[in-house]
């Protein structure tokens, strides 16, 4: 319990530290939110700065921003007039969570199944085929995967819509495009550790005891392989759950991923800080959950930590 | 788990597609007509707000929209607008002169922070004898043209009283459509305004404006029949689309010019006219437009060839021999044999292509070494505005259909003059055009000013921009025009055609 509380404390400290770094880096970058080809008059710029409190001293702005983080009120967006950062994040997060959740599900199912198959199968050519597919997926960027999926399943076979999110079926392709590269990473990881587990003394003695193949696979191969997988999945899940710029743009999904780049480029300080804080919080939570799960699966880790 | 619960919920809550679907680019910067500046905002706001005047898409001439009449006097210092009696808001209430006056006063007010507040800076606005009367301190010959832009459209009291940028729940509209639903970065649904004078039950009842960042995704949506109109297609797809969808694709010139700004402050090498001339004459614009594609046209001057009464002047053309001679003269005058040029440009695929083309041209034709400096746009503009560059990329889109929107950029004291160009004759011509009451003579004066700008090689014009769009062939009622005007209420779907 103390361990858990300590980790929670670390998570809160990380959020504060990342927020401070992001705040000062953003504000020290050349160019401001109202710089564009059309140069506004000095009066207009002054009025905008007054409206968004950008005329106040930097430390006051930082303090206000930090208070905003504490109350989850990040303020108004500087690029979308009349829209608050909470509204933008509130609209984007469900989209990213669905996309990320679907991608995670695909990654776990495909990666786990392929990894276990490659580690336990005796058919050499089948294992080679699975490994080659895994390597190919690992080496293929997700925008290429997205393009292939669209060509085949949307335009070729006409099974699913090409983009959008108004139908249930329109989620299949983006979830696959985001989930398959992650599945390939999981496959490599599981296969490696499952192979190690298969070569362990514990496995050999279990085989000698005549345990069923199912019990062997679950208790002596899958279970020991899960610890590194969980350690990997914590940060990976945070990355997937906060969306992907490329996949969201290709499939026209208004998720969080686009904000990471767009807000920084537009010098939308409040939005950029909002997504940074949300990402850090999700990353900390996912890592924490992964740690808890690891301790549950392998209590030795608790003693070590 | 939350994702699994959200998914069906999100899909169930998504409405059925509208009768017409438009892909409108990225999310709008604002729904407040006085604050919006993006092309997507202009497109959507043109459907929901009527302006006092409008451009006739057939002729390009100015016509009345909400105004029943307008006039100017006192050498274009005084303007009077009266309203048509059937002007109404979407809730049926009367659109009054008070709405016009108060909207313009809100635009003027510094707390609104409106980008186009300048248009009314020194004006007094009153209602006198059944008309809104504006008195400017200086002549404003283009005020009726400004009124075609949504920034000067009358807005309802609920919006005037709200925080600038925030759209109240009980919003009213004056255009043929009204906004019925908006989902952030997803879509905006318009519904027909039955109180509008052009209302017809044959018009589309609903129109969806989708927020889509990528042009390729927009094209996919069109090809998948999820969208009917996309205002910009990816350049790489143009040739194939021309072959496969010849009746859907169309090109319209855009009121925008690509050019190079040359820093001419006294301490800069480019203060030398011969050096500017050498650089300008060494650019083969035909080759450039072939390279960047998009059906752009070579530009030999600044103002695009779009206006009915304004002929494009014969400006700067490619002439390698003359460029070399000019460079020799420049080197002699500057006493420098090793001239180098720095070229600054904002990051984008096309801007890089243009930069590399200019580098190659100046190097091959003139033997000048050119260094390229790319910056992301928010860093680029402050540097360009502080005049901390030697030569730099520039694009200008006209705010209204008149040469003045381009030519004013090079007045000595203009805040968008970022190249230190200063010429008393040029300034005098522009001032003279402002007080000229004869429209034809005014355009002649502006043409003389543009000629002067080109003779001074103050800029290097590169190309005129164009829009390539896709409109489903079974959509009828659209008048193809050079001004990007779409009269949404006149569009129909021909079912048999599909």
Describe this structure in words.
The complex is a heterodimer of chains A (305) and B (498). Chain A has 13 helices and no strands. By secondary structure, chain A is an all-alpha fold. Chain B starts with a helix and ends in a 5-residue tail after the last strand. Helix content of chain B is 30%, strand content 21%. In chain B, helix 8 (273-281) packs antiparallel against helix 10 (320-334). Chain B is α+β, with helices and mostly antiparallel strands and 498 residues long. Chain B is built from 15 helices and 19 strands. In chain B, strands 11, 12, 13, 14, 15, 16 and 17 form a seven-stranded mixed sheet that branches.
Question: Care to give the gist of this entry?
Answer:
The complex is a heterodimer of chains A (305) and B (498). With 305 residues, chain A is mainly α.
Key terms:
heterodimer, A: 305 residues, mainly alpha, 76% helix, B: alpha+beta, 4-stranded mixed sheet, 15 helices, 19 strands, 21% strand, globular
Distance between the termini of chain B: 43 Å
Q: What is the count of helical runs of chain B?
A: 15
Helix content of chain A: over 70%
What percentage of residues of chain B falls in helices of 4 or more residues?
25-40%
Structural class of chain B: alpha+beta
Counted beta strands of chain B:
19
Topology of chain A as a string of helices (H) and strands (E): HHHHHHHHHHHHH
- For the report, how would you describe the main beta sheet of chain A? none
Envelope shape of chain B:
globular
Overall 3D shape of chain A: flat
Mean of all residue-level pLDDT scores of chain B: 91
Main β-sheet of chain B: number of strands, strand sense, barrel status?
7 strands, mixed
Ends distance of chain A: 12 Å
Q: What is Rg of chain A?
A: 24 Å
Strand content of chain A: under 5%
Number of helices of chain A: 13
User: Would you count the extended β strands of chain A for me?
Assistant: 0
Largest interface: A-B, 55 and 63 residues
Q: Can you give the mean pLDDT of chain A?
A: 88
């Amino acid at each position: 319990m103390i361990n858990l509380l300590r980790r929670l404390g670390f998570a809160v400290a990380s959020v504060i530290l990342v927020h401070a770094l992001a705040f000062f880096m953003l504000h020290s970058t050349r160019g401001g939110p109202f710089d564009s080809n059309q140069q506004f008059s000095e009066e207009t710029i002054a009025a905008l700065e007054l409206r968004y409190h950008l005329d106040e001293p930097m430390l006051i702005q930082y303090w206000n921003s930090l208070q905003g983080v504490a109350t989850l009120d990040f303020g108004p967006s500087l690029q979308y007039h009349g829209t608050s950062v909470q509204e933008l994040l509130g609209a984007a997060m469900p989209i990213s969570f669905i996309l990320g959740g679907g991608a995670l599900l695909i990654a776990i199912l495909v990666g786990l199944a392929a990894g276990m198959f490659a580690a336990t199968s005796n058919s050499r050519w089948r294992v080679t085929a699975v490994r080659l597919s895994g390597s190919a997926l690992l080496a293929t960027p997700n925008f290429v995967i997205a393009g292939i999926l669209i060509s085949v399943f949307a335009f070729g076979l006409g099974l699913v819509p090409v983009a959008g999110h108004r139908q249930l079926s329109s989620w299949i392709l983006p979830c696959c495009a985001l989930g398959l590269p992650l599945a390939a990473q999981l496959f490599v990881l599981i296969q490696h550790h499952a192979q190690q587990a298969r070569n362990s003394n514990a496995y050999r003695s279990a085989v000698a005891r005549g345990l069923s193949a199912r019990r062997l696979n679950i208790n002596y191969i899958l279970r020991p392989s899960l610890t590194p997988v969980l350690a990997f999945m914590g940060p990976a899940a945070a990355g997937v759950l906060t969306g992907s710029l490329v996949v969201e743009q290709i499939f026209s999904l208004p998720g969080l991923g686009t904000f990471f780049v767009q807000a920084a480029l537009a010098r939308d300080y409040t939005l950029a800080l909002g997504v940074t804080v949300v990402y850090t919080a999700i990353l900390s939570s996912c890592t924490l959950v992964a740690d808890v799960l690891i301790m549950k699966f392998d209590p030795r880790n608790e003693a070590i930590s | 788990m939350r994702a699994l619960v959200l998914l069906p919920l999100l899909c169930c809550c998504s409405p059925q597609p509208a009768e017409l679907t438009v892909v409108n680019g990225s999310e709008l910067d604002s729904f407040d007509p006085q604050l919006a500046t993006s092309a997507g905002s202009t497109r959507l706001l043109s459907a929901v707000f009527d302006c006092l005047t409008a451009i006739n898409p057939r002729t390009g001439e100015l016509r009345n929209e909400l105004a029943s009449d307008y006039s100017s006097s006192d050498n274009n210092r005084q303007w009077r607008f009266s309203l048509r009696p059937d002007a109404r808001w979407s809730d049926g209430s009367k659109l009054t002169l008070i709405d016009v006056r108060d909207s313009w006063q809100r635009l003027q007010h510094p707390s609104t922070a409106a980008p186009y507040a300048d248009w009314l800076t020194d004006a007094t606005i009153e209602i006198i004898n059944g008309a809104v009367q504006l008195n400017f301190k200086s002549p404003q010959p283009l005020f009726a043209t400004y009124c075609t832009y949504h920034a000067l459209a009358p807005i309802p009291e609920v919006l005037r009283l709200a925080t600038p940028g925030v759209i109240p729940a009980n919003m009213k509209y004056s255009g043929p459509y009204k906004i019925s639903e908006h989902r952030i970065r997803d879509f905006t649904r318009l519904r027909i305004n039955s109180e509008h004078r052009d209302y017809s039950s044959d018009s589309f009842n609903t129109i969806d404006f989708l927020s889509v960042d990528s042009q390729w995704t927009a094209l996919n949506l069109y090809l998948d029949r999820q969208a009917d109109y996309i205002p910009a297609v990816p350049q790489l797809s143009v040739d194939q689309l021309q072959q496969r969808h010849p009746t859907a694709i169309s090109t319209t010139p855009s009121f925008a010019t690509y050019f190079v700004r040359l820093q001419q402050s006294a301490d800069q090498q480019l203060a030398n006219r011969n050096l500017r001339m050498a650089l300008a004459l060494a650019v083969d614009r035909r080759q450039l437009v072939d390279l960047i594609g998009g059906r752009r046209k070579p530009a030999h001057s600044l103002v695009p060839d779009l206006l009915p009464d304004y002929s494009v002047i014969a400006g700067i053309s490619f002439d390698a021999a003359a460029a070399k001679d000019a460079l020799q003269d420049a080197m002699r005058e500057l006493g420098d044999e090793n001239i180098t040029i720095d070229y600054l440009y904002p990051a984008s695929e096309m801007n890089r292509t243009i930069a590399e083309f200019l580098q190659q041209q100046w190097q091959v034709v003139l033997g000048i070494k050119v260094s390229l400096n790319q910056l992301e746009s928010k860093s680029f503009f402050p540097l360009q505005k502080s005049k901390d560059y030697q030569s730099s990329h520039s694009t200008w889109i006209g705010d209204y259909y008149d040469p003045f929107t381009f030519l004013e950029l090079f007045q000595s004291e203009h805040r968008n003059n970022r190249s230190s160009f200063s010429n008393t004759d040029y300034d005098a011509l522009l001032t003279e055009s402002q007080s000229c009451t004869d429209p034809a003579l005014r355009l002649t004066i502006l043409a003389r000013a543009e000629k002067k700008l080109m003779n001074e090689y103050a800029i290097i014009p590169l190309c005129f921009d164009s829009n390539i769009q896709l409109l489903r062939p079974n959509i009828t009622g659209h008048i193809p025009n050079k001004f990007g005007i779409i009269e949404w209420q006149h569009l129909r779907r021909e079912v048999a055609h599909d």
